[in-house]
Amino acid sequence: MTSETKQTEAGTDTETLRRRIDGVRVVLWDFDGPICRLFARHSAARIADDLVRWLEGRGLHELLGRPERESGDPQALLRAFDRARPGDDRVRELEELLTQEEIRATGSALPTPYTDPLIRTWTAVGARQAVATNNSPRAVTGYLAARGLLPCFAPHIYGRGRQVRHLKPDPHTLESALRATEVPPSAAVFIGDSAVDHEAARRAGVPFLGYARDEDTERELRNAGADAVVGSFAPLLTLLRQG
């Protein structure tokens, strides 16, 4: 096996990876996962439990199915409540509670290995950076500012707003980034770590690069149809530095 076709940690060969990033003018990033582990020390399951208790206090928890109430996923709770009560002011209240928790979580979030230098290197060689996430843009902005990365992205941070129906797999955030940067989908790449991210990229027509920090995530991405997946950003950083 030559150096040009050696495998990355998650099984994608270097040449496939090179083709995926060749000519990219805008890099779209999911936030929680590819950029950092947002809930590394601030439990998402605990946040979900708090949101359920908030709904219980208002007699609204029965609007959610048992799977959503017990999922430990605050995003799933928010989606389910929005489906049950679209347009209800309390959807916005619930979203704001989640936003505050995400902002608090940024203080203990763990950077994904190699992401910081990868973002800076990609910016230095001329590619623009944007975030397309289901997290709050306020949380994203705070994290990036603390890491000194905000100049690489601003103002292109697209995240969860009041219209919860626009959460991925809806391609709304990706399409917003493409419109703002005036770049066609074929000249972008979206880096995500879930089947939902892959589906959003497919709908937006954007090439996808999966990040899998464990075997379960790689399996999920491969089963969703992702043909380029890395378990570390080190090979990607090496390719960019080689030019």
Automatic annotation (TrEMBL):
Native organism: Streptomyces ziwulingensis
Pfam families the UniProt entry points to: Hydrolase (PF00702)
Keyword Hydrolase applies: yes
Entry superkingdom: Bacteria
Protein name: HAD family hydrolase
InterPro entries tied to this protein: HAD-like_hydrolase_sf, HAD-like_sf, HAD_sf
Single GO MF annotation: hydrolase activity
Transmembrane segments: none
Keyword line: Hydrolase
